[in-house]
Amino acid sequence: MPPRAEIQTLVEHSPIVEIGAGTGYWARLATEAGADIVAYDSRPPVAGRKKVVAWAEETGTYFPVRRGGPGMVRFHQDRTLFLCWPPHGHDMAIDSLRRYEGGNRHTLVTELSESGAGDEVIMSIAGHVSRAMLSRYSHVRMEAKRRALNEIATRQNAADEKRQEEAKRREQVESILQSPAVQ
Asked: How far apart are CA 98 and CA 95, in angstroms?
């Protein structure tokens, strides 16, 4: 079961369009937590029937998943795009990202940016080749900005404390060297 923090992230980025939703497991968990999700899969499960998938022998249906692939993204530009476990060796994730305009919501690029991934890595994953496009799709959240500034402040405070301790040690050494007992 996914950690609550991950489900809460989906709720915070709701409404969502999920491409490659499989049986709708994540969509169900997020919906139960309060998210608004529209889920698609190229081979959605049929209610009441078990679906055979590569990672499990049989699994049930957790959420109403509609038939559709990356092309469905164009109908949901007002929603956050969610890709969970995109299949290896398949272009579904890249196709979805390329078709997604997403207005002000590009969760993948934002998450990569906040994680500290370099621009080149982000552009390679997202399929964009310019810094202008990266800037358009990255919307670093206020909490990430605060965290980055707090980390800088913590490092600066540690450096200040170290300088003060070194200055104190130098004063003590000078004091010892100038004392009458040493001379």
From this structure: 5
CA distance 19 to 69: 6
CA distance linking residue 41 with residue 63, whole number of Å? 12
Burial 148-166 (b: 16+ CB within 10 A, else e): eeeeeeeeeeeeeeeeeee
Per the structure block, which two tokens stand in for 48?
């009441």
* Cα angle, residue 72 at apex, residues 66 and 76 outer, rounded to 5°: 100
Q: pLDDT tens track of the chain, all 183 residues?
A: 667 878 888 888 889 999 998 888 889 999 999 999 999 998 887 766 665 555 445 566 788 999 999 999 989 888 888 888 766 677 888 888 878 865 444 556 666 677 777 777 766 665 544 566 566 555 566 666 677 778 888 889 899 999 999 999 999 888 888 877 655
Structure tokens at 10: 């989906």
Number of H helices, E strands in the chain: 7, 6
Q: What is the pTM of this model?
A: 0.54
Burial class from Cβ neighbours inside 10 Å (0-12, 13-18, 19+) for residue 178 reads exposed
Strands 56-59 and 51-53: what pairing? antiparallel
Phi, psi of 178 (to 5 degrees): -90, -5
